[in-house]
Amino acid sequence: MKDDKGLLIVLSGPAGVGKGTVCGALRMEDTNIEYSVSATTRKPRAGEKDGVNYFFKSKQEFEKMIENNKLLEWAQYLDNYYGTPIDYVTETIDKGKDIILEIEVQGAKKVKERYPEGIFIFLMPPSLAELRSRIVGRGTETEDVIDKRMMVAKDELEMMENYDYVVENDEVGKAVERIQAIVTAEHCKRERLIEKYKQLVEVE
Amino acid sequence: MKDDKGLLIVLSGPAGVGKGTVCGALRMEDTNIEYSVSATTRKPRAGEKDGVNYFFKSKQEFEKMIENNKLLEWAQYLDNYYGTPIDYVTETIDKGKDIILEIEVQGAKKVKERYPEGIFIFLMPPSLAELRSRIVGRGTETEDVIDKRMMVAKDELEMMENYDYVVENDEVGKAVERIQAIVTAEHCKRERLIEKYKQLVEVE
């Protein structure tokens, strides 16, 4: 027996921890989880499809979505808007399907304010040292940028206070398993099921 | 990274729901979970081993355990005592290993009073109708006994209020998977991990 409403699962964590990789690996599994698609005003890159990678919007369209409260969260980076359209999320949940949102820490905080009943998962590096090597591993950052990232990561670690779960990303496969386990366990939570089961007893 | 203390997992549920079968199937999995061994004053049956199936105790020994508060819970059935020795449970948890306790509903209630930080899982039949057919399936009960069992089951269903999780036993394999998922998820709970992670940041 499953409860009727789907879960909103928010996967977040510090920059460089591998949110995208873990989320990508999760998508390869047969999970029955939907994936939220972000809206953005940035131009599509080669191969990106509207409604798949992003919902590509004009600046005016995006600002109208902000105005009409149609975004679960949004932010501005490098003169472009990015945000999570709320309709797709609520429609999915209402259909009884789970939906996962992969999002940076500030965005997750905003989602938490708006949708506190979501399941908030913080993806953690095995250690800050390893976080450092992962960032260095990208090979595109200077020492200064890395040091700044480390400072940011420390702040972000403190932000894990707001999360329900902490999943260590020691191995992508293991992180994926843990996330799947969390989703399964959340569906077994007594609070979610008790009303339905009570009906079962009444009907007999 | 794992938190240092193991979890006490209490698996309970109405009579006839298949606690023993599910627990037996869970034992076949590579779970790293220990299993609690009950103490009893009843005589060993053919093939039963002391310390494996039960700790076989004399009436005097058992009453001394009660007196010395050495039982997490105990009860008397058909002139015999049954109970859960507390030392094995706490030693296992302190070693950082999880331990599972398969126990009837009244016993689980007593464990909850004594160890509220345990993870309480209620094993549910897909419906009371199926619970009935399972009991009938045993072929050893009269209609009267069955009707009485049904009444008891209804009471027990109300008892699921005290549990953290409800696992439906529609298929043994699925029930086992759900229990394993719950254990994994519980180890990812933010409250369990945050102190350890905070140390990580301090050390850097």
Automatic annotation (TrEMBL), chains A, B:
Positions annotated to bind ATP: 13-20
Keywords: ATP-binding, Cytoplasm, Kinase, Nucleotide-binding, Transferase
InterPro entries, per the entry: GK/Ca_channel_bsu, Guanylate_kin-like_dom, Guanylate_kinase, Guanylate_kinase_CS, P-loop_NTPase
Stretches assigned to the Guanylate kinase-like domain: 6-184
Catalytic activity line of the entry: GMP + ATP = GDP + ADP
Enzyme class: transferase
Compartments where found: Cytoplasm
Family to which this protein belongs: Belongs to the guanylate kinase family.
Function: Essential for recycling GMP and indirectly, cGMP.
UniProt name for this protein: Guanylate kinase
